[in-house]
Specification:
With 318 residues, the protein is of the alpha/beta class. The chain is built from nine helices and 13 strands. It has a seven-stranded mixed β-sheet with strand order 8-9-7-10-13-12-11. A six-stranded parallel β-sheet has the order 2-1-3-4-6-5, sandwiched between helices. Helix 3 links the parallel strand 3 and strand 4.
């Protein structure tokens, strides 16, 4: 019997990509709603309670309202909004972080999809803090360069306009007041005493991103050099199917030695770079903000929840 799936909020970028990926699978039956009823809570609740899996691709308040209408204990919810990401009652959908995270995704009824920036940040920072290599009160900073698709339909349309402002062609920093919506999950999931200083940057390409963490190695336990830190990450993520660590000194093989953020466009996996010397290190996570940063992560969580191979229906570089 195919798994019955309902995508609540299928008109946005995440919902559309979910529909595209899942409609190609013969093990999935997509349940649909009359477009005129897509904001009708009772109609959505009826379909949701008939589904095995419900994906929520909605604003936070709408996601909470949809969850309130799901009463079938056998319906699993995978929420792509920020509404539930810091709640202990929800599984955080980044199974590569630990065996405990993977087990919770496999067994929970409520699963939240991490934010795109937070996915890269937590995959870089969680191992350091969880291992004791970096103290929880370390003054983390991060910058993240991302394509404009992560900003939603209105911004996508604005970038596509022929008469758009000239400054759209240059990278632009935002969330300068340090109130970005991904900061709470960055702090909580990585176990930080304080939120990091976060510098997100939107640029003139559709999708893809690089999240970067600079480190002062003298402040780490044992003062490892960058090559030792690379070995640490290689061991930590050994055997993962959707997260890989690039070889040591991989920057030498990059075009002109530059890390290009759109390289993983259309893919659902993620690559980590560890570069530097004896004093400083640069950690970077490169992936697609619509893939491992959104719909790809959602499908990975569904696959794990259903007991399937986690990369089923996903696109990777392997």
């Amino acid at each position: 019997m195919p798994t019955k799936v309902f995508i609540d909020g299928g008109e946005g970028t995440t919902g559309l990509r979910l529909h595209e990926r899942l409609s190609a699978r013969n093990d999935i039956q997509l349940l649909t709603i009359d477009p005129a009823l897509r904001k009708d809570e009772s109609a959505k609740a009826e379909i949701s309670n008939a589904a095995d899996i419900v994906f929520l691709c909605l604003p936070d308040d709408a996601a909470r309202a949809s969850v309130a209408g799901i009463t079938n204990p056998n319906t699993k919810v995978i929420d792509a909004s920020t509404a539930h990401r810091v709640l202990d009652s929800w599984a955080y959908g980044l199974p590569e972080l630990s065996a405990g995270h993977r087990e919770k995704v496999a067994t929970s009824t409520w699963i939240c999809v991490p934010g795109c920036h937070a996915s890269g940040f937590n995959l870089l920072v969680y191992p350091l803090v969880a291992s004791g290599l970096v103290a929880a009160n370390y003054p983390f900073a991060s910058h993240s360069v991302t394509g404009y698709s992560g900003a939603g339909k209105k911004v996508i349309a604005a970038y596509a306009e022929d008469d758009r402002p000239g400054y759209y062609g240059t990278p632009r920093q935002y969330a300068l007041g340090q109130a970005h919506k991904h900061l709470p999950e960055m702090q909580k999931i990585s176990g930080l005493a304080h939120p990091p200083v976060f510098n997100p940057i939107i640029a003139d390409f559709y999708c893809g991103m690089v999240v970067t963490i600079p480190l002062h190695l003298r402040l780490l336990k044992g003062s490892p050099d960058a090559q030792q830190l690379h070995s640490f990450f290689s061991d930590f993520y050994a055997g993962q199917k959707l997260v890989t660590v690039a070889p040591w000194q991989a920057e030498a093989s990059l075009p002109e030695g530059m890390l290009e953020p759109a390289h993983f466009s259309g893919r659902d996996d993620l690559e980590i770079f560890v570069c530097g010397n004896s004093e400083h290190a640069i950690l970077a996570a490169r992936f697609d903000n619509l893939g491992k940063g959104a719909s790809g992560a959602a499908i990975q969580c569904m696959n794990i929840s259903l007991g399937l191979s986690e990369e089923t229906g996903l696109v990777t570089g392997s």
